[in-house]
Every structure is written in C-alpha cells, then in structure tokens.
C-alpha cells in the first residue's frame, strides 16, 4: 500500500496548487484508491469528486454525489457548500466554453483555468505545502 499525504483545508475550496497536486497523485497512484481525512467528510468528499471527474466516465452530477448524504455528509453544511461551489465553477466554465464534461476537459480546466475565488476560502496560492513522496518513497512496504 502507498500513502500520499495531501493537505487540504476542510472549509475552503482547493487552491490551484492543491488541485494540481491531487491530479498528479491520482494520475500516478495505483487503483483502487482509498481516500480519507480526519472525519471522512468534507475533504474526502471533495477528493473523491475530483478523482471521479479526472479518472472516470461519469457525469458531473454523479461525481458530486460523493459530497452527499449517502456518504455521511448532511445537507447544508457550509464547508460542503464551498466544495460544491468549486464544482459549480467547473460547470460554469464548461457552459461558457460550450463544452461537456470529460476527463480531458476537467484536467484542462484544473491545470489552466481554475483559480480559487476569495469567497471560497481566501486567495489562491500557487504553492502547495504537502510533499509528495519521491520515487524511493513510493515503494511498497
């Protein structure tokens, strides 16, 4: 088993650097993936949504269900609403671009267009404070 430790804020949308780091991990990590945070709610739901949008052939609505009651997240949580607003930014970009969801379109948006708006958690930082394991640390124990 490999462990990737990514620092995400539970009450804010991800920064562009955090989103890029998630995409990097999801592109190199073995599947299936187990995602968990301290309580297994907000950050786990966001990361699972990003995983599905970047890896699978599901709709945006299906991916967004990872942040729902089925996975233990009660409706109306302010933290979760910020994460849902992150998904809505992607949907707005798709609409403005005349595109539909695909893995490639999500990746393009995440890598080139996404910047966290201040109302979703503060300024967007171009640095990520998590450290990915180097190649020697990626070996199975």
What does this structure look like?
This protein is mainly α and 141 residues long. The protein has one domain (16-119). It contains five helices and no strands. It has helices at residues 16-28, 42-55, 60-64, 78-97, 103-113. Helix 1 crosses helix 2. The longest helix has 20 residues, at 78-97. It is globular and about 40 Å long. The model is unreliable at 128-133 and 135-141 (pLDDT under 50).
Helical stretch count?
5
Report on the biggest sheet. none
Name the shape in a single word: globular
Q: Low-confidence parts, pLDDT < 50 over ≥5 residues? A: 128-133, 135-141
The residue fraction in helices comes out at 40-55%
Strand content: under 5%
Cα radius of gyration in angstroms:
15 Å
Q: What is the number of E strands? A: 0
Strand-pairing-aware structural class: mainly alpha
Provide a concise account of the structure shown.
This protein has 5 helices and no strands. The chain has helices at residues 16-28, 42-55, 60-64, 78-97, 103-113. The protein starts with 15 loop residues before the first helix and ends in a 28-residue tail after the last helix.
């Amino acid at each position: 088993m490999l462990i990737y430790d990514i620092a995400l804020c539970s009450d804010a949308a991800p920064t562009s650097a955090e989103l890029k780091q998630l995409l990097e991990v999801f592109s190199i990590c073995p599947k299936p993936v187990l995602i968990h945070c301290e309580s297994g709610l907000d950050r786990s739901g966001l990361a699972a949504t990003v995983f599905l949008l970047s890896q699978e052939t599901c709709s945006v609505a299906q991916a967004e269900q990872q942040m729902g009651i089925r996975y233990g997240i009660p409706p109306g949580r302010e933290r979760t609403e910020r994460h849902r607003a992150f998904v809505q930014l992607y949907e707005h970009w798709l609409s403005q671009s005349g595109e539909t969801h695909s893995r490639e379109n999500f990746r393009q948006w995440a890598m080139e267009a996404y910047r966290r708006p201040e109302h979703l958690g503060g300024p967007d930082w171009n640095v990520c404070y998590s450290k990915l394991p180097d190649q020697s640390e990626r070996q199975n124990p």
